[in-house]
Amino acid sequence: MSDSPGLLLGGTDQGPFLMTARMANRHGLIAGATGTGKTITLQNLAESFSRIGVPVFLADVKGDLSGLAAEGKSHPRIDARIKKLAVENFQFRATPTVFWDLMGKKGHNLRTTVSDMGPLLFTSLLDLNDTQGGILYACFKIADDNGMLLLDFKDLRAMLTWMADNARELKAEYGNISSSSIGAIQRKLLVLEEQGAEDFFNEPAVELDDLIKKDFSGNGLVNILDVSKLIHQSPKLYACFLIWLLAELFENLPEVGDADKPEFVLFFDEAHLIFDSAPDALIDKVEQVVRLIRSKGVGVFFISQSPMDIPEDILGQLGMKVQHALRAFTPKDKKI
């Protein structure tokens, strides 16, 4: 018999619907048309995970998740629902919450350094060709060889400019350094910089331990990242952050096997906004993570209006679906 705790999803007159916490690291999808309760399900799961000691990360697209930090209030409909589901020992209470913001306006600054991001992720994110990618790798190698840290965007762009000015002296050891290739890299970096990358690539850098924490009572910390403007105004920067976060989780968390509950759970609301304009590097990284990160105790949940919003290679890896009412107005919709 499993000792894995059960998480209440909802219920009917026949009884409650529970999700075993052990199943959470098999990932999931919460789907349904607008107004059918997807956000409530998300909040309910986030609170439930927190109460069994599992830290949570939420990407807040609509700005409506901050209420998790406040204690709820009684209402006749809520009271009736609690009675119908026969929830024992129910009480309203706040969830331990930390707010983050890549821009530092609605929460703590969430930052990393250029060196931590590394040339591989930058090459994928910027969609560099082999020649440009090779030059970026040389840039990081030169910095390492000379004991220099690439902390922010100014450091990276200054290093690339110095490489162009000293290409002849560097050629023997690091290969041909084309000024036109460096110019192409600089232009792509400029796009990221215009979207606010200088706020993300800076110090002090956030560690995974800052996100995967519990409070003094053993409740998992709920991390809420405000992306209400970021996802629309700075989509490349948002993709940059997600690639970094997923890479950090995949590379640094230890193997835990098939645990009774996950170590960390991520929720991505309005997931179609991620995948509609996502670079191939992000989709590849998400697919890699959902395929392989289960053994590290990480669960990933996507929330969207239709399962068709999620790429098929990723959708096929999701082990659980919570489906609210779907509206089938077209022949394509009816196939869901």
Provide keyphrases for this structure:
single chain, 336 residues, alpha/beta, Rossmann fold, eight-stranded parallel β-sheet, 15 helices, 10 strands, elongated
Sequence-ordered SSE layout with sheet pairings:
Blueprint: E1 6-12, E2 15-20, E3 28-31, H1 38-51, E4 56-60, H2 76-85, E5 97-101, E6 108-109, H3 114-125, H4 130-145, H5 153-165, H6 167-174, H7 179-194, H8 197-200, H9 208-211, E7 222-226, H10 230-233, H11 235-252, E8 264-268, H12 272-276, H13 280-292, E9 298-304, H14 312-315, E10 320-323, H15 331-334
Parallel strand pairs: 3-9, 3-10, 4-7, 4-8, 5-6, 5-7, 8-9
Antiparallel strand pairs: 1-2
Characterise this structure.
The chain is α/β, with parallel strands linked by helices. The protein has two domains: 6-110 and 206-334, Rossmann fold (3-Layer(aba) Sandwich), CATH 3.40.50.300; 114-200. Helix content is 43%, strand content 15%. It contains 15 helices and ten strands. It has helices at 38-51, 76-85, 114-125, 130-145, 153-165, 167-174, 179-194, 197-200, 208-211, 230-233, 235-252, 272-276, 280-292, 312-315, 331-334; strands at residues 6-12, 15-20, 28-31, 56-60, 97-101, 108-109, 222-226, 264-268, 298-304, 320-323. The strands form two sheets. It has an eight-stranded parallel sheet, with helices on one face. A two-stranded antiparallel ribbon has the order 1-2. β1 (6-12) and β2 (15-20) form a beta hairpin. α4 crosses α7. The mean pLDDT is 85.
